[in-house]
Amino acid sequence: MSSSARAFLADLAKARETQYDSISGVRRGDSDGEVSLLYSNDSLEEPLEIKILSMDVTSYPDDSCFMVFTSSETCDTKVLSLLELISSSTRGSTLHEVIQTVSDQLTASFDDTLESGFGSSASPDQDTPDYEFYDSFEISDDEAFPQVEKSRADEELQRLCKDLKTAKEAGVTVGIFPNTADRPLEVISLSIRISKLGITSETMHAWDIKVTDYIVLLMRLPNGYPSIATLLHSSRTHPVVQFRFGRCSSAKPSIESVRLAFQYSPAATKNSDNPDSTLPAFSSVCMSNSIDMLFNKSFVSLLRFRRAYGHTWDEAQATMHEYIGRIQSEIATENNMGLTGASHEIPISTHAPSSLQHDFALDDEASISFPLVAMQFALRRFCKCTEYCIVCHLKLQTDFVPLKPYVCAKDLCLYQYLALGLGPNIEHEVISSPYVVDLLISFFYTGETQRSIREFPCGLALRAPVIQQSAPHLQIETCIQFQQFRILLVRNEPMGTNIRKRMRNGDWFAMLTNKAGSIEKHTCYVSETLDDGLYKYETTNSIIWPKNRAEISISELIFSTAVPSKKDFWQSGFIFPYEHDVDNLDADQRAIALTELLDNLPSVLQMRSYLLDEPGRMLSSWKRINPSALSLMRWIVASNTSYIVQDGPVPSKDLAAHSSNENPRSAAMRKATSNLIRPLENGWMQFRFAQGSPEKEYAFLKTLQEMKSKNQSTAKPPSLFVWHGSPISNWHSIIRAGLDFQQTRHGRSYGHGVYFSKHMEVSKAYSTRLDFCAKAPFRHCWMGSELRISLALSICEIVNRPEEFVASHPHFVVDKEEWIQCRYLLIQIDPTENALKNPLFAPSGPECTGYIQQDPEHCIMREYSMDPLQIPLSALSIARQQEALGLTLGNTALGSITAVTNKIDDESCDSDSGDHPDILVDDILKLYRAHESRKRQRSTSPEPSSCGLASSPSPWKSTKWSEIGKKNTRSTQNMTVSLGSLDYKTIPQLPPPSWATSSPMALQTLTRELKHIHTIQSQNHAASLGWSVDTLAIDNLFQWIVQFHSFDSGLPLAMDMKSRGLRSIVLEVRFGSNFPMSPPFVRIIRPRFLPFLEGGGGHVTAGGAICSEMLTNSGWSPAMSMEMVFLQIRLGLCDTERPARLDTRQRTADYGIAEAVAAYIRAAVNHGWDVPEDLENIHAGWLMPPAS
Length: 1188
What we know:
With 1188 residues, this protein is an alpha+beta fold. It has 36 helices and 27 strands. The chain has a 6-stranded antiparallel β-barrel with strand order 10-11-14-13-12-15. Strands 17-18-23-21-19 form a 5-stranded antiparallel beta sheet. α15 packs antiparallel against α18 (587-599). It is globular and about 100 Å long.
C-alpha cells in the first residue's frame, strides 16, 4: 500500500471520530477511495446519504480531487448542483476539509437559498398548504384518516377539471385513477399516440417502441392537486407531484401497472369488475429513467425559472446549474426578470401536432394547465432525447445526433453512466438483444486474453481473486458432497487484516482442490455461516486444470505444502477470496481476473429466462451472478456507443444459403430476415451497425457531404462497400473507436493505412480462427457464450475515391480514418443447442425496401466468386435511404421508408379511449361525500375507554393509536389473526425506557413508522401482509409485539404450526436510543424453533433472535422502514432452501431475552457483522417494572 493510500485511510479514521455539524455515519464506502456519510437537516424528511469519491488515492492529498454526489432519487436539484460545485474545488484538499465543506455549504444552502426559494414575492399570510408528513409525536384522528376540507376538495377538483379539459382540447388523452374514498384522486395519465409525433421507423426501432404505442406520462398527487402558485412558491425539498414516464399499447394503462410504477399499495384491491384492470400495462422505455429523474428533481424548478425570467427550457436548465450560491436578485438582474421578451423555441418538434405547437408554459397564471405543460415538456425531452446528456440533462455540444441517448463528456456524468447503472438498462438489453450482448462480451473476453484491449473499466471497484502462492489465501478442508468448508490456516495475511473474520454470507472465492492428479478450480460464494466455524457454499462453475498447463505450476506449488484431511469425504483445499481491486493488478493478473469474472456469468439465454420468469426482476437479485461480474458486463454494454442489431438468425448446419428463396421458412421469418445480405454462403451470422460510434459516424457523413458538394456532376455512388478481416481480439476496440492503423499485425507491404478488399476470401485470410475447447482453463472464448464465435469479418463503407487511396490494387489501403465506417459484422460460430432453438428474437428493423446501387467497377464479391453481393438499403440512414431510392427506384418508393405517421389511419387516432374530466369529477365528488357521511357516523359513536392507559400523556405514549386500533377492530376481526386476539398478559410488557424523553429523533421516527404501519394495515388484508401489529396494545413506542401468520400451507413451518394448533409466530421488536441510526432488536418470543444444528432454518438463532445482517450495523440503513424489516424477516421464515421448523420437544417455554441477545451476538461475531452499540441498553439497561 502506498504512503498516499495509508494517509487517506488514516484521515478516514480521524474523520470517523470527528464531530461535524449535521454530519453522522462517516464510514468507508464500497469502492476504494470512497467515503459515505449522512447529512441531516430539519428541512429534510430523512438523512441524505452523500458519497465522497477520491479520483486518485495514490496522489492524495496533494494532487487528488474528489467527486461529491448522492444516490438519493428525491434530492433537490439545487443540492445536486451544490455538490457538483463542491466537487470542482476539491483538488489538493484533505478528506477532513471536504467533509467540513460539505457540512458548511449544505447548511448555508438550506438556511439561505432553499428557504427563500422563489417565493419572496408571495405574501407571508398566503394560504399555502403544509405538506409535512407529521407535525408532532401524537397523531390525531384526522391524521389517521387523511382528507381535505370539502371546500378545498371542490376547489381542487374544479381546477383540475379545467386543466384537464385544456389538455384534452390540445389533443392529449386523459385518464384519471381514483384510489379510495379518503383519497379519491391520486394518479392522472396523459398520453398521445407515437404516430402523431413524426418519429422515423429507424428511430422507433432503436428506441424499441412501436408506431401503435402511446407515450404516457403519469402524475401522482399524494397531497391533492396544488395550484400553480403553490407549486412555484413552495420551498419543500420533497416533491408535491410525482412523475413516471413510459409507454402503453392503449391510451390509458391498467390501474395495477400504474400502482406498480409508483410502488405503492392503495386500499383498493384488484377487482375484475373494475374496467381499468383489464387495460394494457404501463411500461418503461429506454430513456424512462433519465426523464423520470429530470421530472422528479427538476421540472417544477425549471418551470419556475421559465416563468420568472422568460427562459426557454434549455436556458432554464443551464441557469439552474449556475444558481448555487447566488441570491435571487442577482439572477433576476442578469435575466431581465419577467415574461416580456422571452426567448422562443419549438415546444416539442416540428413534426408534433399543431395543437401542441403553442408554448403553454408561459400562459398566464389564470389559464395555465400544469398537466398539459408537463406533458408538453415530457414529449419534448422524449423526441429530443438524443440531444441531451441522460445524466445531467444539459444539451450535448455536438453537431451529430445519435440514434440512442448518450452521456456528455463530464467526468461525473461518465462515472454515473458507467459505474452507477445510469447507462443502458442491462436487463432490457438481455431480453431484447441477447446475442448482441453475447457478441460484446465475447469480443471483450477474447481481446483481454490476447492483451488487445485499449480501454479498461476503471473505478468500478471490481473484485477478483489472485491465485498466487504469495497472495493472501486460506487453507481449508472441504466436503464437496455437502458443499461445506472449514478454515484451517490463513496464509500471507496482511498486517491489520483478518481474512477469517471477513468471510461472510455472499462473499465470493475461488477454491482449488486436488483431484486424481489434476487441480479442480471451483467458483463459489458463501451461502450460509454455520456453527463450529463451518461455512456452507454454492458452486457456480468448476473446471479441471490438466497438469500439462504451464499456468498450473503455481497451484501445484501451493498444494505441495497442503496437509491431507483425516476426515472421510473431506479433502484439503485452498480459498482465494475475491478481494483484489482489478485496477491495482498488472496486465497479466488483470487479464486473468477479468476473464475469470466473465466466466462466472450465466449465458445470455439463461439470464433472459431468469428475467422473463418473473417480469420486473433485476439481474442483481440473482445470487448466481457475482456483483463484480455484473458490473463488468454492464460496463461492456454501456461503453459500446455503436448501435448494433442482429439482422439474421443463428445459422443451422442444414440451412440453405440466404439467397435461396425455396428455403422452407415461414412468411414471418422471411419478413424478419429481409435485411440479410444476399447471396451469402451458409454458416454466417449477420449483425449490422445501425449506427457506428457517434463521433466516427459524424466524421464519415460529413466527409461524404463535402465530397458530394464538390462533385455534384458525377453519377457514381459516393461510397464503396468492401471487406475487412481482423482477429477477434481486435473487435472490442474496433466497434468502439472505429478502424485505425495504430498497430501493425500483418505487415504493410502496400503502405500505411487500413487494408480492405473486394474479395471475401482475401480478408478472411487475415482473420484468426479460434477453436472452442470446453475443457481449457484459459480459453480464448467466453465460457458462457451461446454463439461461441470462431471468426469475424466486417463489411465496411469507404469513400469512393480510389485515386486518393494509398493503394487501390490489389488491396484498398486508406489512411484517412474519417473515410471509413463499419456497416456489418459477419461471424462464424459453433452455436449451442439452446441458441439453435432460439435463432432470432425480433426483426432488426423495417422490411427491406431495396438494395444499394454499387459502383460497377468496385462491387463487393462473395467468397471464391465473381458474383457481387447485394447490400440492403437498411445499411444506410433513413435520409440516405431516401436519397438512394430517389436515384434507383424513383420517388414512388419514398413513402415506404419515411416517417411512419402515414401508416396510421386518422380515424383510429381520433378514437383514443380516455376519461372525460366532468364525468370523473362528479364520480369523485360522490365518493368524497360518501366518505364524509361515514366520517360523521364515526364522530357520533361513543368513544371507547382507554383500557388502562396512563392518564397523563407522555411523548412515548400512543393514546391516539389505541383509539385508532379500537376503531379498526371491526375491519380486521375476520382476518386470519384478529387484532386483540393475543393474550398480552403472557408477554413481558416493558415500561418506557430511561432514554425515552431524551431521544427526540427516535420518538419522531417511531411515531412516523407506527402511523405508516397503521395505514398499511388499514389498506390491506392481514393475510396478504402476513404480519400484524395490534396498535391497541401499544402504550410504549419503544416496544412492539408483532405476529407473523398466513404462511403457505405447503411450508414445513405452516405444517408444524397446524399440527400444534398455532395461528401465529409472536415476535418482539425493541428500539434503542440511537434508532433509526442503529437497527432495532428483533426476537421470537414463541413458539420455539428447531435449532440450526438439528436441521432447523428460517434465519432463527438458537436463542430466538433473528439472524440477519440487515439487523446489524453492517447491513442496517436509517432509511429502512419497519414494513421492509417485517418483509425481510418473513422471507427468511419462508426460505425453502433451509426451511424453518418448530421444536416439538418444548411446546410451552418461551424464548428469554438473555438467550436471544447472546445468540444474536454469537451469530454476528461468526459472520463478522458489527453489533449495535446500544444493544446493551436494549437488554440490560431497560428497567423492568417493579413487582406489584
